[in-house]
What we know:
four-stranded mixed beta sheet; 14 strands
Amino acid sequence: xxxxxxxxxxxxxxxxxxxxxxxxxxxxxxxxxxxxxxxxxxxxxxxxxxxxxxxxxxxxxxxxxxxxxxxxxxxxxxxxxxxxxxxxxxxxxxxxxxxxxxxxxxxxxxxxxxxxxxxxxxxxxxxxxxxxxxxxxxxxxxxxxxxxxxxxxxxxxxxxxxxxxxxxxxxxxxxxxxxxxxxxxxxxxxxxxxxxxxxxxxxxxxxxxxxxxxxxxxxxxxxxxxxxxxxxxxxxxxxxxxxxxxxxxxxxxxxxxxxxxxxxxxxxxxxxxxxxxxxxxxxxxxxxxxxxxxxxxxxxxxxxxxxxxxxxxxxxxxxxxxxxxxxxxxxxxxxxxxxxxxxxxxxxx
Length: 349
């Protein structure tokens, strides 16, 4: 007998399909070919497992056990939901702790309140966003940090984005951890590192990073990306719900750069910038953070900064900075609900 068995979802109910006479077995319907029926009811029933006792002359219902024996259901695999719970470091400062929040071991690895900074991946929207609706000014004015080098200082001076800046001329990803640059909030007049400032701040929901131009001259590029990853991990340890925007290095104008300095570096080229950006994009993807490419609105048709928009081939004039700011206003992603990360009474947003 030719039978085609088609499983339906759920309790094991199935359909046996052939071509003519219909038989009912409780929740199971079968059809027998005319050729099979001509051979007699015994020939047909011999094709069905012994658990089914049936006749062609009357309906005989099967109980649930018989149906399950004939057509056992597919096993259902369920996974226990993983609960993500973090506490902000500011809520768990060790009792009696008087030192800096960020310290280092003998190998230079950063620690947070005496604990290793855990490698973390953002649980937020990631990738390179498409052009979005223009954000309101309050998007940057509230809960946002801009961290980076002299390019970010230029944006701060032009005043196109009103936000909190941790930016300094010459800042590198290494100096982020090691060089005191900003006044301590305790009123002591002491300078603290950018890393310490970020930890003590804590009240941010999104962070814009711009690093790389000062690191172009480093003989090896691996250290740059190692420090950059540590920097991202530090931010996520402080605020796991923060949306991190990693900005690609902006293009330069090599001719203007060469003419503006007596000792131009062979490392300052758009080709090297492209190499850095390729690895920076891969880092952002691996850490699941947002990757922005402002260079796409800053470069001219040759892929360089316009010669009339820069005096040293690297830094931009106010008009170009405004174009950069407009790119940031129109390339935003949604914030994350802190309730997905925190179980503390302090976080109530």
